[in-house]
Amino acid sequence: MKGSRWISVVGVLLFVAVAQGRAAADQAARVPAEAAQVLKLLQPAARVQAPDFVLRDLEGQRVRLSDFRGQVVMLAFFGTA
């Protein structure tokens, strides 16, 4: 009697472990599909070329935005009083 109970307990624990593993695998497979759906909704707007303009650098030299065509440009404007 004790032996069959022990086998039953081990069988139930094994079943629960397998069921949990499958549930976790199903969840992991579902997450990328949901993420892809969200990213599909967040498509960037069509690229628009920035208008060309001219500024002066710290040495007073003229710098045109078009001088940097094809490169990533980050502008930082600082003001002091």
**Helix/sheet category:** mainly alpha
Number of domains: 1
User: Helix and strand string, N-terminal first?
Assistant: HEE
Strand content: 5-15%
Low-confidence stretches: none
Rg from alpha-carbon coordinates: 31 Å
Summed over residues and divided by their number, the pLDDT gives a mean of: 76
Distance between the terminal alpha carbons, to the nearest Å?
90 Å
As a percent range, the share of helical residues equals 40-55%
How many β-strand stretches?
2
Strand order of the largest sheet: 1-2
**Biggest sheet architecture:** 2 strands, antiparallel
Q: Please, how many helices?
A: 1
Shape: rod-shaped
Give a nutshell description of this structure:
The protein is built from one helix and two strands, in the order H-E-E.
Q: Would you write up a description of this structure?
A:
- The chain has 1 helix and 2 strands; from the N terminus they run αββ.
- The protein is mostly helical.
- It has one domain.
- A two-stranded antiparallel ribbon has the order 1-2.
- Strand 1 and strand 2 form a beta hairpin.
- The model has no long low-confidence stretch (mean pLDDT 76).
